[in-house]
Amino acid sequence: MEKLRETILTDLARLWSEARKPEALAGAALEKLFDVECEALPHYVYQKEEWVARVGEVGRRFSDPAHAGWVFAGRKEKSVPAESFSDFAMQARAPAPSRCRGNPAAAAQAGR
User: Fold this and answer.
1) Quick one: which of 11, 45, 47, 65 is 20 to 30 A from 78 by CA?
2) Residue 111 in contact with residue 94, Cβ under 8 Å?
């Protein structure tokens, strides 16, 4: 698993370096912005019950703050509930108001 993890992290770092980023993040390393973890899962076809159980366990790490392995433990950043994430993400990437003036399509897309 360690060799696969190294390969995944190397590929992610390459993709991150090639991705277009805002100027403020142009030199930021992937590890500065993201905590990347790798999980090995049982084979879906041959070990479906174990696969379902492990996927459920991984899911609880994201959804249950009481879980010992909760991925958001110790974080003090802005908390956005899962049911509100879509709205938060749309607001975060909406065009700036100055870009919407005089452009009805942009204003409509930005929800104005």
Assistant:
1) 11
2) yes
Query: Model confidence over 83-112: pLDDT tens digits?
Result: 777 776 666 554 444 444 444 554 455 554
Q: How many residues does the chain have?
A: 112
CA distance 72 to 64: 10
Q: Is the pTM of this model over 0.85?
A: no
- Rounded to whole angstroms, how far apart are CA atoms 63 and 76? 17
Query: What is the identity of the amino acid at 49?
Result: E
